[in-house]
Amino acid sequence: MVLDTRVTRLLGIEHPIIQGGMHYVGYAVLAAAVSNAGGLGTVTALTQKSPEDLRAEIRRVRALTSKPFAVNLTLLPSLAPPDYGAYARVIVEEKVPVVETAGRNPAEWITFFKKHGILVIHKCVAIKHALTAERLGADCISMDGFECAGHPGEDDVGNYVLLAKAAKKLTIPFVASGGVGTGSQLAAALALGAEGVNCGTRFMATTEAPIHDGIKRALVKGDERSTTLVMQSVGNTERVFKNRVTTEVREIEKRNPGKIEAIRERGELPEEFSGERRPRQQRVERGDRHGADRRRPFVRRVSEEDGRRGGGNHHGAARRFGARAVEAVTRAS
Hints:
- This protein is of the alpha/beta class.
- It has helices at 6-11, 28-36, 51-64, 84-93, 107-115, 127-136, 159-169, 183-191, 213-221, 244-255, 260-266, 271-274, 279-285, 290-294, 304-309, 317-332, and strands spanning 17-19, 41-44, 69-75, 98-103, 119-124, 140-144, 174-177, 197-199, 227-230, 238-241.
- The strands form two sheets. An eight-stranded parallel β-sheet has the order 1-8-7-6-5-4-3-2. Strands 9-10 form a two-stranded antiparallel ribbon.
- The longest helix has 16 residues, at 317-332.
- The chain is globular and about 55 Å long.
- GO terms for molecular function: nitronate monooxygenase activity.
């Protein structure tokens, strides 16, 4: 049985699995590995310090795979916004086949990318936003439920509600994003009307993900209570892994909530969280071994079962995920 959906046909991929954009994780080596395994790998544009750095990273992807891949361009509130136009122009100049947009009103960017023949997947946390993106010309919607890591929006609606509603309201294909990490969960998303899934955290526990092995082990060891929400008080909610910094941020919010600018003026936002420390220093303190991980040859699934066996095997995460999804769909049909 092959999982043939509108998403696989639209994107030219084998499995209806998209590796979502992730800051400081979505580098060429991970994106290429996912694409080579039959999914759609994604490079995160704003992880690159400049548009020219993004150009170089896109070319690294092409040196590692001939398969389709995407670039994520996230448009979020910022006191010092990047030059989105310059990043977008590089994406066009490098003829990237697919762009994943997220954040604020995408009208300008959907029009821009579509004019240059680029497929657009837009991430949405509400049906009304998905309908707007569809009307603007998006090719596919990524429905982000409240379960998702990163930015789940401010409406707190889970995927069981969002996906069922999207199936009734949308005419373009959509994928489920948030809380998906197994083949059976992909099968459940398909049953609710989605035509694929978008996974982020799921791909952090792979060999090519440029984060320290200790972080990968923590993710595998974690349970359903290991995440928390921060930045709710300033209207920019983020679901993150619980640690010292998130505890500090939540205490600040509880003590004296306010808009981002006001908190920053009071000097209370931890510098680790605000991103004001130098990127290299941040990466070192996270235990980031990006250079070493780039040289590793292939995605290796790091699952709870593999961890108990003390290592895991060397099949591609996306390929194994896809195979298990097929098995799950077969059992359910």
